[in-house]
Please model this.
Amino acid sequence: AQTVTQSQPEMSVQEAETVTLSCTYDTSESDYYLFWYKQPPSRQMILVIRQEAYKQQNATENRFSVNFQKAAKSFSLKISDSQLGDAAMYFCLTTSGTYKYIFGTGTRLKVLA
Amino acid sequence: SQTIHQWPATLVQPVGSPLSLECTVEGTSNPNLYWYRQAAGRGLQLLFYSVGIGQISSEVPQNLSASRPQDRQFILSSKKLLLSDSGFYLCAWSVLSGFEQYFGPGTRLTVT
Model:
């Protein structure tokens, strides 16, 4: 069975600083996908970044980048130049290509002005 | 571009009353559709998913049901609501299983 663990229930970062959110996962699948989603106070889930497991290159989207360590089954999210609008709950999830998307429990990010 | 709509945005219903939440997707054909529930401060629980019209799979036994009467329409229903049905309901779609999901704005349901 696939599992996703986010060990940081809450994180804080100063505006304009960099923060890294941790995520570890477990899967027996050889091919799978990993995602980070952001859920702001509006509660709509917004895709932040996507990583295919077969790609060694870490995905990046503007200020957001991941550190994908396949052997360690680690998929951390780095947010650079943090902005007040980055304050949200962040969910890490994985899927192996079926309908099942396995979610972590989330990390609440606070951005301090 | 693709968009996903959910309504209503907020709903307060008494215990024992029926429920109907609707989700529609625009700008894509034959999407995979999903219903999730999120309790306050918790992660998402998959309730139902559908890969085509009339094809519904249930993940969690409960008093909820889902239907897909049209390609881009997904409905979540209940004949009699329970207090435990309160929560935030999210509809999502994906092009194929395993690809990124796109979520609707959600419905906040309070059962009193």
The mean pLDDT of chain A is 93.
